[in-house]
Amino acid sequence: MSTITAVAPWFGSNRMLGKHVGEELPTCRWVGIPFAGGMSELIHIPARTILVNDLHRHVINLARVLANDNLRSPLLKRLTRLSFHPDEIAAAKEACKAGEPGAEPDIDLAQAFFVSSWMGRANMCGTNDEFTGRVSIRWNASGGDSSVRYRSAIRSMVEFSRVMRRCTFETMDALDFLARCEDTEGHGIYGDPPFPGVGLRYKHNPGADEIGWHSRLAAAVSRFTFTRVVMRFYDHSLIRELYPESRWTWRMLKGRDQANNGDKPEVLLINGPSFTQPSGKLF
Predict the structure, then answer these.
(1) What average pLDDT values come out for the chain (283 residues) when binned by 10 residues?
(2) CA nearest to 18, candidates 37, 35, 43
(3) Rounded to an integer, what distance in angstroms lies between the CA atom of residue 265 and that of residue 157?
(4) Residue 17, Cβ neighbours under 10 Å: how many?
(5) Which of 101, 120, 159, 209 could potentially form a cystine with 106 if both were Cys, beta carbons 3.0 to 4.6 Å apart?
(6) Buried-state track 225-256, b at ≥16 Cβ within 10 A, e below 16
(7) Element (H, E) at 135
(8) Which residues contact 270 (CB under 8 A, 6 or more apart)?
(9) Beta bridge partner(s), residue 155
(10) Backbone φ, ψ for residue 71 (5° rounding)
(11) d(CA 228, CA 152)
């Protein structure tokens, strides 16, 4: 498996803990993902069909191009031939700001979004600031090299493309998406929504009525009885209120602060027993 474990370096990406999501959805034939983000979890979900949704049209467009047998190889060749230079990322960011992809997969905008994402600062994708800033250039030998990260990301897209061929894609409101999902044995839903507070940094965020939005989200996923639901959050007082342990299994994980400020406990909330860990155990 590639060391690059995301389609895009998403703010708050689950790239370090994505395997645990797959552990909790091992028998599902169909999985719906209302908040795709950087898609770190996809390579760990074995479902025959995965419906991937996000209001962020650029990241969905990139995924669609990777899934397309006629577009994937030309995209990767283009990306490989580019030089790592501030002019490349400046042009890419301007292209992304100029317009969003339409109904058909757009290889030009897929290239622009990939360059903007992987040549730029890490963990900015999905935020209001994702198309600002210069190329990330290393001026000393400490730490990782940004050009190496870019080249590694290109190689990792080959692996992700294998998963994308099992995926279908949508770009709709997450609550509308959940309303369309059937409550059926063998189905699963994985939700990685904006976390309370820090999630307001996303371009597509809950807005001023954050508590009300999270309440509606909790109600939307709580209706499922037969469909297995897995939700990812920080351990937060609002989440404790909306997803009580009397109703949800809390699988605690050693996560990272979404702003990369150090360790911070995360939780996978499951509407049934965990397949791997007892509730409340941090590991």
Answers:
(1) 81 90 96 97 96 98 97 97 93 95 97 94 89 74 77 93 95 98 98 96 95 98 98 96 97 68 80 78 38
(2) 43
(3) 29
(4) 18
(5) 101
(6) eebbbbbbbbebebbeebbeeeebbbbbbebb
(7) none
(8) 24, 228, 229, 230, 231, 248, 249, 251
(9) none
(10) -110, -25
(11) 34
